[in-house]
Amino acid sequence: MIAALDVHYDEEHARATSAAVLFDDWHSGVSTAEHSAIVEGIQPYVPGQFFRRELPCILAVLDKIELPIHTLIVDSYVHLGDRPGLGQILWEHIGGKTPVIGVAKTRFKDAAASEVTRGDSQHPLFVTAVGIDPADAAAHVRQMHGPFRIPTLLKRADQLARGR
Question: Which of 21, 69, 121, 124 would bridge 4 by S-S if both were Cys, CB 3.0 to 4.6 A apart?
Answer without folding.
Answer: 21
